Amino acid sequence: MTKLSPASFIGVSGNGIISFGSGQPDMPPPKEVFEVLKTFREFKYGMVKGQLDLRTALAKQYPNADPEQFVITNGASEAIDLVLRAIHDNGGKRILLPRPYYYSYPHNVRLAGMEPVYTDLVKGKIDIGDFRHKVKGCAAVLINSPSNPTGTVQEIETLKEIERITQELNIIVISDEVYKDIIYTRENYLIQGPHVVTVNSFSKTFAMCGYRIGYLWTTDAELVKRIVEMKSHTSMNTCILGQAMALAATQSDPRYISEQRKVWKERRDMIVSGLRALGLELWEPEGAFYVLPKIPVKDVERFHKELYEKHKVITYLGEWFGAPGRLRFSYALDTDKILEGMKRLKKCMEEFEE
Q: pTM (2 decimals)?
């Protein structure tokens, strides 16, 4: 059987396909973003650290932040890669990852020359006892809340305990907060401290995935210095047009975010209802736009393949996220497609033969 991977589905559409695959918002960015295209005429190199106006705007969003504490990157992915490689250069060997994890994390860690260590989530939540045990001897921990792929949000008490433990042990926290504006249950809790690196992006909040504008923020000036030095020899500056559009997004009507969140919540309720009607066990998403149901068949990989090849429904295999026996559904698609996708999933479940 031909092995499928996330790369098999990225950008795949048309021909009657319904994709619950890629986590890409299907709604447009704020209108202010498009206005930039009318007058933008810059073509020269930008600052490796990122344009000062964008860093200044971002600094206003974080407590006691300074523009010099930010680095603008090619999406959150480059931010994570640069932080990991900077940690490795400083003698880091092991990185703790909650599992299920975003599928790139273990690869990011290994490509940076380090070893991933795992703490398994319990009902989508961090087990602080296991975390406390596993984090010892690690250079850093990578937290993603709200989570891709689970959609769960870590409890504030847990995040505060992680702050305390990691600061006491002098362990870096890389907090991937790309879904911080898409939480249905409470306001986002910002992990803070001199040992914390916050990673964010304009991809999810502002539907700007293809522009590849992310950033990192940390009060660790030496870490920023190492990261900028590394970036100057790799990607150099991040696209200055994308940065100008990101700046415009920061100046857009704040109702854009709240209105988008309402849409995500409606879709969340619809897909959760549809999956539960099929008898599937899942953790109810509290944020982001993913759900990770358990599939009641022995060969989930073959089921996943048949769902795509026979029923034209794209999902992501839970195994890619460290969650065998499950499929990840992104509900970043309109409600008509969600309903049709649930019908096709039901048909596949009825027809699938072990």
A: 0.95
Distances (CA, A) of 105 to 142, 192, 198, 309: 8, 21, 16, 28
Answer yes or no: do 223 and 274 share one domain: no
Q: What is the pLDDT of residues 101-135, one digit of tens each?
A: 999 999 999 999 999 999 999 999 999 999 999 99
Both structure tokens of 201: 């992006």
Nearest CA to 283 out of 334, 335, 340, 321 is that of: 321
Residue 39 sits in the same domain as residue 185: yes
Same domain, 39 and 14: no
Long-range CB contact pairs, 55-59, < 8 A, 24+: 55/215, 57/247, 57/250, 57/251, 58/215, 58/217, 58/250
| Residues in a beta bridge with 328 | 316
CB 321 within 8 A of CB 292: yes
pLDDT exceeds 70 at position 11: no
289 and 245 in a common domain:
no
Q: Any idea which residue has 């498009």 for tokens?
A: 34
* Domain range enclosing 164: 32-250
